[in-house]
Every structure is written in C-alpha cells, then in structure tokens.
Amino acid sequence: MDSKKLYVVGIGPGSEEDMTIRARNILKKSDVICGYTVYCDLVRPLFPDKEYISTPMMGEEKRVLLALKSADEKRTVSLICSGDAGVYGMSGLVLELGKDFPEVDIKVIPGVTAALSGAALLGAPLIHDFCLISLSDRLTKMELIEKRLRAAASADMVIVIYNPESRARKGYLSHACDILMEIIPKDRVCGIARNIGRSDEESMVTTLEKLKETKADMFSTVFIGNSSTKNTGDMMITMRGYKSEL
Amino acid sequence: MDSKKLYVVGIGPGSEEDMTIRARNILKKSDVICGYTVYCDLVRPLFPDKEYISTPMMGEEKRVLLALKSADEKRTVSLICSGDAGVYGMSGLVLELGKDFPEVDIKVIPGVTAALSGAALLGAPLIHDFCLISLSDRLTKMELIEKRLRAAASADMVIVIYNPESRARKGYLSHACDILMEIIPKDRVCGIARNIGRSDEESMVTTLEKLKETKADMFSTVFIGNSSTKNTGDMMITMRGYKSEL
Q: Residue A59: CB partners within 8 Å, gap ≥ 6?
C-alpha cells in the first residue's frame, strides 16, 4: 500500500543543521535521492550509502519523471530542493506530472527558504508584510516582474528578490533597482545575503542606490526594506507599528 | 566572552519534527526558554528540565526584556516564536531593545513559517512570486492592509494571509475577500490550512467566493491563488510559466 512514496523535500540553505528533523529522517529512510547536481553534492556526505539521481539545472522535467519512475518501482524516493520544496521549488511540477503515476503517494516536506535564512543573517528585515519576487525571466515575462516590483514598492512592502542575476542575466538587479527608485527613495535601507548556510556565507546592509552597483549571482538573496526599515550598522531591522505611508 | 547569549528561535509549526536540527540543539543547550504561554506549553514536554518564562499574548515587550535580563545574568536564553523568528516574529523587537544590553550576543535562528508548512499541506500553492499580508490591525492601519491586498491582487501574486481573524476581529477575512473580488474573479482558487503540525491539522481548497463565508481564527493561514493556480480536487497547484496577465 504505502510502498510507492515520493517525498519532495526542502533541505534548507545547505548545512545539515538547517534541515528540519523531519527532512533528515525522510532522507535517512529513502532508497534514492534525486536532485540538481549541486544539491546532491551537498547531501551526499551526510547520506553516502544512498543511490543518487542527479540532473543539471534546466533538466527539471526529466528529473521529476526519473523520481516518479523510481518511486513507481516501489522504491522510497526523495526529490530534494534547496530552501523550501514549494518556494521556487519542485513541488508543483511533481504534483502535476504525478497525475500519470496514480499509485505514487507524493508528500511535500517544507524547509527554510532563503528569505528566512537570509533575514536571520541580516537581523530582522521582514517582521511584517513582505513579498518574494524572482528576477528570472526564463518562465515569466519581464513586464510582469516589473509590474510586481512596482506594486510591492507602492504598497510599502518589504521585498525579497530571488535569482537577482546569473551568468546569462547580467544587469537584472541594477534594472530592478532603477524601477524601484521610481517609487521609493534611493537611500532606502537594503541588504544582500550570499552563500547562506555555507562556509563562505556573507551579508551586507546598504542603500538602494548602492545596491544598484552591487554584484549578485544565483546564490544571492536581496532585501529591499520598507519605509520603517532601519540600518543599525551591520543589521537591517524593520519596525512593527507602521507609520501611515498611504 | 560568549556567556551572555540570547537566541531568538523559530520553532516551526509546532511538532518537534518540524523544528530545524539547529533550533532543537539550541533549545537543548539553553538554561532558560522564554515565550508566549501557548508556545512554552508546546516545547515543555520536549525539554522538561529547563526554566520557563512565559508571558501572555500582547506582553511582547515585557517578554523580550525578561529574556534580555536573563541573558545578561550569564544564562543561555532562547526566546521562542512559532513558525519563523522574523516573520511576524520577535527578532526585530529583540534587536531593537537589545541595544540597551550591549554585552548580550543575540542570534536569530530561522524556522518554517506557516506560509511554507501550510503550502505543503495544500499541495503547491506558492511555487512562484507571492506575498504575506497580516489582517491584524493592532499595529497597522486597515487602509494600508487594504492597499497591500489590492496591490498584490493587481500584480497577479499569490497572497498568503496571516492572522485572518481573531475573537476581537470578526469579519476581517470576509472583508478582505470583498476587496480582492473587486480585482480578481470570485471563482479564483483559494485554500485554508488550520492547526498546522498539530494532531487536529486540516486543510481545504475552495474558491474566493466561498472563502468569504469560511470561518477562520488565529491558527488559520489562508492562501489566495493567482491566475495560474488550479484546483486538482483536494489540492491547490500554482503553475510555473505564467501566461501574460498584464
């Protein structure tokens, strides 16, 4: 009955300690761990005796089908995602393609996404209402990304930017800063966190104007404060109890 | 040197398995656990030999000062928050009030917030850009809450609603649905998750129109889909690869 199991597991930012206990227990009991090559390399030292199926970036559909097929062969499979399983993660694609594997029982295991782990590094930038916006236009039109940035800034929400840049998308963060500066002041408190949970983890508090000149990559998460966010030296704190900014 | 430690710890939705390994290890080595009464009751069975300082809801400032004073007396203190430490959590207030306790080293430990644990229960409602909006007007003006709801709906973002209602705030979720229906169709796929991570956990997929008539409380998290969100029976899945909806 319950032998055909596929877990979509958010492993958090990277280190074992930042996984949930549930995620670790599920990886421990899995026969097969499936994921993007970089994430498989992260967990392999913790679970060296598992079978691994890794596929490169962009190979998402293939990866999900391999995981579903493996589970359908009565193996317990974990498909791993960095951060959370559902925030820019694979849970949607798995549930969608899983319709063709009706005997496979699919469970989603949440994890700590970069908005939360990056916020903890920077102090307390979120605290109240915020939104997550990815700058990747691989599957979303740039016009819609721009519309979302403007909507969030106009409503004085803290904004967390995922995928700010990549080798193929140079200048995207700078472009996003230009759009935000149409609406919010250039001295707005901002922050950036890089390589969260890894040995070379770093974070920096800055302004929107300086953020425009800052280098970012796929392992960076960017935080745009709201009108209540303060720079306390090395940290970024958003106040509760909002002043009226309508 | 490092004897005056205060950790602000996100404990996740409630069960021990949904804590990160780091959060559990820090609670284990703490002398004192401080928190809202309900959350202290959740962790006391796991760590029965600790000293507990619990204060009721609304007593946030007092709770934080008690935690800081206890850490300043060279005790290792964990101030616990449900979900994440920084999402509608206490990390901001601790860092702010912590300025008066310069010898206390404050660290924020992230956890799985209800947007992520609720999404895992409902399937895959987030997947792409989304925002978190609290309906509590204790510290935020209702006009600003309404403005944020409209902005998020206009930009076709998935919306996660925290604190939809409480005993003192009846009818708030219904009011929010009315505002959203000015912009998005009444058959928009929505979901609600209740008592996540506890024995009486439940979730339901519905429409915006029906959500307006649905009861919610402080332990409910509400999900409003975007134009790409599907109802697959008992689940809510947001598609990647957005159609142009500008």
A: none
Q: Which of A7, A19, A221, A29 is nearest to A125 (CA)?
A: A221
Phi then psi for B87, rounded to 5 degrees?
-95, 105
Query: Average pLDDT of B50-54?
Result: 95
Please compute Rg for chain A using Cα positions: 19
pLDDT of residue A176: 98
Could you tell me whether strands B189-194 and B220-224 are parallel, antiparallel, or unpaired per DSSP bridges?
antiparallel
* Number of helical (H) and strand (E) elements in chain A, helices listed first: 8, 13
- 186-225 in A: which are within 8 Å (CB) of B? none
How much is the pLDDT for B2?
Answer: 55
Global pTM reads: 0.95
Interface of B with A in 127-166 (CB under 8 A): 127-134, 139-141, 143-144, 147-148, 150-152, 154-157
- The answer to whether the Cα torsion of A42, A20, B28, B56 is positive or negative is positive
Tell me whether residues A86 and B126 touch, CB distance under 8 A. yes
B15 Cβ partners below 8 Å, 6+ apart?
A: B197, B198
What was the pLDDT predicted at B55?
85
Q: Which of A21, A25, A143 faces B246 most closely, judged by CB atoms?
A: A143
- The amino acid present at B243, given as its one-letter code, is K
CA distance A162 to chain B (A): 9
A97 CB neighbour count, 10 Å cutoff:
17
Q: List, in sequence order, every residue forming a beta bridge with B220; answer none if it has no partner.
A: B194
Q: Which chain A residue has the Cα nearest residue B228?
A: A92
